[in-house]
Design brief:
The chain is built from 11 helices and 17 strands. The strands form 2 sheets. It has a 9-stranded mixed sheet with strand order 3-2-10-5-6-7-9-4-8, covered by helices on one side. Strands 1-11-13-12-14-17-15-16 form an 8-stranded mixed sheet, with helices on both faces. The chain folds into 2 domains: 268 residues, 3-Layer(aba) Sandwich (Aminopeptidase); 129 residues, Glucose Oxidase, domain 1 (3-Layer(bba) Sandwich). Helix 8 links the parallel strand 15 and strand 16. The termini are far apart. The protein is α/β, with parallel strands linked by helices.
């Protein structure tokens, strides 16, 4: 039997998908074919789950301060949120603090800057007041990053260009009382695009009706997404190889999700498919999700975040201390493809390597990773998951607990375009 995790093999897979893979684009589809071939070479049958996905396939952004002085400012924008006219736009500028209603009575046609997160409430407010675009300052000493956007907002309320600038540039604009700016944002979006989840399964030899999901997302933001999440993709594929060579007692399913960076679109679509298209037992069969998102960096620390009941968290915490595994064990939700499953009451363990600000940055490149950095978390993942999957009696109940369920619900509601239903106060 093969009981080793090959960091070298994982690294070689990462090199093969070292290109931009924005959800729904040709780059992502190319990566899906590479991943599919890898799974077939391992000896697994591959299926594709295609689903609707708003996407953007051509994007660029430019900004200049026009008055009271002239200066070009580096920006990036959220694709899918919208673009300017081809020639760009010159408009008055206004700072609206955190974006409260009291600041928005005279913003029609203006480029506004806010320190508030552009959530459902603020997006609708800015569209209702006809803002031309919105600029958000990055946190102090944080690098500008390219990120994607929730297409549901655009479908419901229409386009609104959302841009990011550095903290120092934003501070200068306020101190020097900027009154007018020029923006040119090209964003060729397709609200009717298609994402593709890549799926393979190994049937359990003893309890095939009990299933465990191994997953990670393979799409990127506006970069090559090596740490986030070519590394997690490669880890899942290496685990698929292990389980093919070491047949499990329970069914294991490997899913590489599309569109995670666009708002968990692939995992949400997959869970919806299980709820609507298959038997009522489809979701009940899933006992746990093992999610791999972020990994492979030379510098960093390995973390397990447990979105599950307290017994599983306490077990992992104790095991880590007894065996001096040098892992950080956290008990909380995790913003990744495990969340739609957790929303259905399915517990999850999230494996990731905490790096130094590489996520969603332009510097998320292959220079930051190395084969040996995969192996600590990979070897432990084999040991932990095989123990759970092959246990004679399931060691943990299929639950996430009341407090965790509430956190999961609040998280999922934040990305919804609908007002959430009120929840009765605990008191």
């Amino acid at each position: 039997m093969n009981n080793t995790f090959s960091g070298k093999r994982a690294f070689e897979l990462v090199k093969r998908i070292d290109f931009m893979r924005v959800g729904g684009t040709e780059g992502e589809r190319k990566a899906a074919e590479i991943i599919s071939k890898e799974l077939r070479d391992i000896g697994l049958k591959v299926e594709h789950h295609d689903f609707p996905l708003a996407t953007s396939y051509k994007f660029s952004s430019k900004m200049k301060i026009v008055s009271p002085y002239e200066k070009e400012v580096r920006i990036t924008h959220r694709v899918i949120s919208g673009g300017t006219p081809p020639e760009g736009l010159t408009a008055d500028f206004k700072y609206i603090d955190s974006g409260g209603e009291r600041f928005c009575d005279d913003i029609e046609g203006k480029v506004v800057m806010t320190t508030g997160n552009v959530d459902r409430i603020l997006y609708e407010r800015l569209k209702r007041h006809n803002a031309a675009a919105v600029i958000i300052p990055m946190e102090h000493n944080k690098e500008l990053f390219g990120i994607t956007f929730n297409g549901d907002y655009v479908e419901k309320w229409g386009e609104l260009p959302v841009c990011y600038i550095g903290y120092d540039d934003a501070l200068e604009m306020m101190k020097k009382k900027v009154t007018k700016v020029y923006l040119k944002i090209e964003d060729e979006s397709d609200l009717n695009g298609t994402g593709r989840n890549v799926i393979a399964k190994i049937e359990g030899s003893v309890r095939p009706d009990e299933e465990f999901i191994f997953c990670g997302h393979y799409d990127s933001t506006l970069n090559h997404g090596i740490y986030d999440n070519a590394a997690g993709t490669a880890t899942v594929l290496e685990l698929a190889r292990y389980y093919k060579q070491n047949p499990p007692q329970r069914t294991v399913r490997f899913i590489l999700f599309s569109g995670e960076e666009l708002g968990l679109r692939g995992s949400k679509a997959y869970v919806k498919k299980l709820k609507e298209s298959e038997s009522e037992e489809a979701l009940k069969k899933i006992k746990m999700v093992f999610n791999f998102d972020l990994g492979g960096t030379i510098l960093g620390k390995n973390v397990l975040r447990v979105t599950a009941g307290k017994p599983l968290y306490h077990y992992l915490d104790a095991l880590n201390k007894i065996e001096d595994l040098d892992l950080t064990i956290e008990h909380d939700i995790y913003s990744s493809d495990n969340m739609p499953f957790c929303g259905e009451g399915i517990p999850a363990i999230n494996f990731y390597r905490q790096a130094l600000g590489l996520g969603h940055s332009w510097n998320d490149s292959i220079e930051n990773i190395a084969p040996e950095a995969f192996e600590i978390i990979g070897d432990f993942a084999i040991r932990l998951t095989s123990g759970i999957v092959n246990a004679t009696v399931p060691p943990f109940k299929r639950l996430i607990g009341k407090e965790m369920a509430k956190k999961v619900r609040q998280y999922l509601e934040r990305s919804s375009v609908e007002e959430p239903e009120p929840v009765e106060d605990d008191e």
